[in-house]
Amino acid sequence: MEEHETVLSEVHIGLPVCSTSTNVVSRFEFEVPAGLSLRIERNSEESSDSEDQEPPRRRQPPREVLFIEHNMATALSDVGLQVWPAALAMADFLLHEHEKFKESLLLEIGGGVGLCGLVASRVAKKIVCSDYKAEIVDAMKTNFLKNRGVVRDNFECLVLDVKDAEVVDCDFLFGSDLIYDDEITDNILNFVKRSLLKTTVAFFLSLEKRFNFTIDNLEESCPAYKHFRECCQRQCLQVENIDLEAVPQYFKSLPRSKHIEILEIRIQTPDP
Fold first, then answer.
1. Entry's InterPro entries (predicted)?
2. DSSP state letter for 83
3. For residue 55, is the peptide bond before it cis, meaning its omega torsion is within 30 degrees of 0?
4. What pLDDT score was predicted for residue 23?
């Protein structure tokens, strides 16, 4: 794909939206998993009143809504200004594993317009959301302000280009839909390895395998994914697949594709 060609994420198709002067705002509803506090400690009177009702009504899972301002279509270099399917899967994973992250500092690489960072704010002790372009980080900040009633005041948004950035101390790294360009993949995995050698426990990555049909071989291939796996091997990074069937779909606006994976990446331990 040429750099100037525009791409559109299927996430935005069919979502309820409203418009700003330049962008659209999509409404993302999600279920709140059991054990995760609802909307920054919502009124306790509401729950006590409902418990007194006779007969008790069957309760639906509590829900929250995020409003995300984004572009509808972008050039390949600006895909961070959209929300992509793998981001919804990562948001599901963060909610499902909220106990794992509740005392942790998380750093998100390629946070885009901030959907996963907003969710991470609810589950982590602190979240640092980053992207490599100031324009994208400005959009991220806009969405954090837009959702003040849903997120906690434990976030930071910053410009971070992993190509030459210093490692940021954190417990876990995560990112979504970052694997589409070989040079970017190399830079990300170099940064990840440096982080894992310092303070980071693991890097969680969600991605969607995108297949191309090649005339030469008359078969489908996934060159970006293949390069990513080869690069992990060269960097001595251990890659394990998270069982997505065990991760409920809290964001239901789009069916989860069978081509989406969530991977846990660590430094490879030598065989005994």
1. Methyltransf_16, METTL22, SAM-dependent_MTases_sf
2. -
3. yes
4. 87
DSSP 143: H
Instruction: Report how far residue 262's alpha carbon sits from residue 20's, in angstroms, rounded to the nearest whole number.
Output: 33
To which H or E segment does residue 93 belong? helix 85-96
Amino acid 12: pLDDT: 79
Q: Pick from 189, 170, 90, 69: which is nearest to 128 by CA?
A: 170
Query: Could you tell me which residues come within 8 angstroms of residue 150 by beta carbon, excluding any fewer than 6 positions away?
Result: 39, 40, 64, 65, 66, 118, 122
- For the purposes of burial, counting CB atoms within 10 Å of the CB of 60, is it exposed (0-12), middle (13-18) or buried (19 or more)? exposed
Query: CA angle, 71 as apex, 67 and 76 as ends, to 5°?
Result: 135
Mean pLDDT by 10 residues, the chain (272 residues): 73 76 88 79 44 56 93 89 96 97 97 98 97 97 95 95 95 96 97 96 96 57 92 97 98 94 92 58
Round to whole Å and give the CA distance between 194 and 197. Answer: 5
What is the pLDDT, as a whole number, of residue 37? 72
What would the two tokens of residue 217 be? Answer: 């071989």
Pairing relation of β-strands 126-131 and 74-75? unpaired
Nearest residue to 87 (alpha-carbon basis) of 258, 256, 202, 231? 256
The two structure tokens encoding residue 199? 């303070």
Q: Give the model's pLDDT for residue 207.
A: 97
| Domains of the chain, start order | 81-267 (3.40.50.150)
Pairing of strands 63-70, 155-159: unpaired
Question: In the prediction, which pLDDT does 42 show?
Answer: 46
| Burial letters 99-134, b for 16+ CB under 10 A, else e | ebbeebbbbbbbbbbbbbbbbbbbbbebbbbbbbee
The amino acid at residue 7 is V
